[in-house]
Amino acid sequence: MAPLGLLSSIVILPLLPTFSGLIKTESWPTLIEKINRGVLLCMVVLLPIISVMSSLADPIIHVLFERYAFDSSASALVSSLYLFYSLGSPFLIVRELVVAVFYAFGDGLRPFLVSIGAIALNAILDWFFVHRLHIGVQGLALSTSLTAALSLITLIHLLRRKVGGLFLLHELISPGLFLCFCCVISSFVSSFSYENISKIFLSEFMTRLSRIQELYCIVSAAALGIIGFFAPLVLVLYFSRYKLEHNNNLK
């Protein structure tokens, strides 16, 4: 969660003065546009990291933690926990963005009450998943992700009431689906790259990969996965700009 908090601070805090200025002038349509852009910016920053780390979770955890009593079964457990926690990461960072908008309104009470309710709901879901559904510790991670999603939905509903019902979420559907497509490509590229780079090292040294060699494989695969995420974005932006310039020339 620490890297997520760092990312949210880097992305969201610079937007706070913009939100405050638009709220002061009651420019609601522009405010909603800025919020939507902020959401997309958060996703563009966070999703490639999640997609790469999720696809490389097993080797990353193996390199970082697997030694002594921390065996392969413990690595598998931690990997599954990370995957469940990562489901809630997009909701958490967008929630921080929405909370920043409430702060720009000078309203800290509603986010506080929603946070208190989220803590209570998280405790209830922890008990339900662990003791009723017997999911185990993965249930704790899943309940955290579900709580983040539900608290975000609640905050968006409260924010809609503040801006007169204007919150054009449907404008985020198309770019959101495209970003999910980029995540799929990134995950595939990361997994495929790691598997093949590892095979090259194995055939070269004919021994079990040392941690340094494994780290090299992970970093190389992660870099290719990041490229796999942003390559479709760059292509779409390029062709969109080309089409716009072409239409302007025709006029």
Report what the structure shows.
The chain has 251 residues and is an all-alpha fold. It has one domain. It is flat. The termini are far apart.
Distance between the termini: 51 Å
Radius of gyration: 21 Å
Number of H/I helices: 9
Order of helices and strands: HHHHHHHHH
Helix fraction by DSSP (H/I, runs of at least 4): over 70%
Shape: flat
Task: Output the structural class.
Answer: mainly alpha
Sketch the major β-sheet: none
Number of strands: 0
Determine the oligomeric state from the structure. Answer: single chain
Mean pLDDT: 88
Strand share of the residues?
under 5%
Tally of domains: 1
Low-confidence parts = none
Task: Please give the structural blueprint.
Layout: H1 2-12, H2 16-24, H3 28-55, H4 57-65, H5 72-104, H6 109-132, H7 137-162, H8 173-205, H9 211-250
Helix pairs in contact: 1-3, 1-5, 2-3, 2-5, 3-5, 3-8, 3-9, 4-5, 5-7, 6-7, 8-9
Pfam families: MurJ
GO cellular component, one term: plasma membrane
InterPro entries: MurJ (IPR004268)
